[in-house]
Amino acid sequence: MAEQLIESWMRDGKVVDGLMPDFHAICAFGGRRSGSGQDSRALDWALGRLAALPGQGSRVDVPYDGWHCRRAELTLLSGNGRRLACNPLLRSMSTPAEGLELELVDLGQGREEDFMRAGDQIRGRAVLVRHEYPFAATHMHRRRKYDRAVAQGAAAFLIANPWEGGGLMSGSSGRGRGQPGIPAAYVDYAAAAALRQEAAKGTARIRFAVLGEEDENAQAGVGIFQIPGGRPGQVFITAHMDGHDLAQSALDNATGVAVALAAARALAPQVSDQTASLCIAFFCAEEWALSGSARYLEQLPDNARANIKLDINLDTVAGDDSLTALLSDFPALEGYVRQAGQASKVAVDTWLPFMPNSDHANFARHGIPAFRLVAGFNRPDSRVRNILSAGDVPGIIQEREMLQALRLTLGLGWIALRMSDEQLDALKAR
Ligand SMILES: [Zn+2]
What we know:
The chain has helices at 2-10, 13-16, 19-27, 38-50, 112-118, 142-151, 189-200, 250-267, 291-299, 302-306, 333-344, 360-365, 399-418, 421-426, and strands spanning 56-63, 66-76, 82-84, 86-88, 100-106, 126-130, 156-160, 184-187, 205-215, 219-227, 234-240, 277-283, 308-314, 323-326, 348-351, 370-375. With 430 residues, it is an alpha/beta fold. The strands form two sheets. An eight-stranded mixed sheet has the order 1-10-12-11-13-16-14-15. The longest helix has 20 residues, at 399-418.
C-alpha cells in the first residue's frame, strides 16, 4: 500500500514538478539571514505556495535577540603585520571602538584536551580553534568551543575554516541579550595559517575590533500551515527558512523547505477524519541558536503543545546521497524510520544521541518525539561541508538527492499519519 502510493506520488507532476523550481525560488530570496527581511519574504512566499491545499495557513512573529555587526577588523601585529579577513559570530560581544590588543594562543582543533593542556595560558588572551564538520558522531560544535573559551577566561575567540583554501564562515555565538561573553569571529584558512605561524614562534599579537548593535524588537517569523484531521494529535513537518548571508543558504536550508512543500502537496489529500492533523511549519531565526522555534514552542498553551505528537525536521537533506535521521534520544523512532525507509526504498541510517543542531532539538526538549533528517552524516568530504560558507550555492545540489529526500519524507509522513494516537504516543518511550 505505502510503496504503491509513494511510487504514484513520485510520478505525479502536481507533487514533483515544483520541487526544483521551489528550491531555486527560495535561493533567489538571498541568504535569508534573519534581520535582513529576506527570510520573512521567503516565509510569506512559502505560505502562499501552500495556500491552494485544503488547510489553513497562518503566520506568527516571535521575539528573538536580533543583532547586527557594524564593523569588524582583525590585524596581525607581529611578524610583518597585516589585516586578516574575519566574520564575527552572530551576537559576538563588542570590543572597545579602538579594539583589543591581545596575545593569541593556538589551541589546534580546540577539543577539551586542548583547552585543558593550555590551562592558565588562556586567561586574558585570544584563542584560535578550528571549525569541525558539524554532522559527525565525534564533532565538537562551535558553541561548545566558544563556551569553553569563555569559561576558561579567554579574552577573544577565533574559529578557523579548517579546509585548505577555505573562506570565511558564519555561525552564532549563542550569547543571549545581556549575557556575558567575548568577542568572537570566524577566520579563513589563510588567516588561520598566518596566525598559527606567528603563534608557533610564541609571538602572535593581534588587534581585534568588533562593533555590534542590538536590534531591539527583532521578530522571527513562524509560518504554520495546518491540515486538520479528525483526531487531536498533530504530526509536524518542519524546516527552517533563515540562513546566512555569505551565499544563498541552498543546502541549509532551501533543500528542506522545498522538500517540505512537495511533501505537503502529496500528503494533504491523505489527511482525513481517521488521521492526525498534518502541520507544515517554517521557522526563522534557527541560525540564532534555534531561537525562532524555541520561542514559538514556549508561547504555545500546554494543551496545544501536548497535541504535537511528532516532529519530522528537514534540514540540509541534499548535498550527498546518504541520509541519516538524528533521533534526539528517542529510541522508539528507530523502528518507525526504518519502516519508512523500506516503504520508500531509500536507505536511511539512524543516530540516536541528542544533537541540538536544528529545530528538532526544541521539540525534543519539550518531550515531543523529534528527529532531524540530514544528508552527509559522517561524510566530511561531501558537498554538505559547504554549509555556513560562501560555497552554499544552488549549483552544488543534485536533483536526484532532492527526489530521494522527498521520497523518504513521503514515507515518513504517510506512516505517521496512519498511526493511531497510541502508536504515536509510544514514540515517546525513552
Ligand atoms: Zn540548518
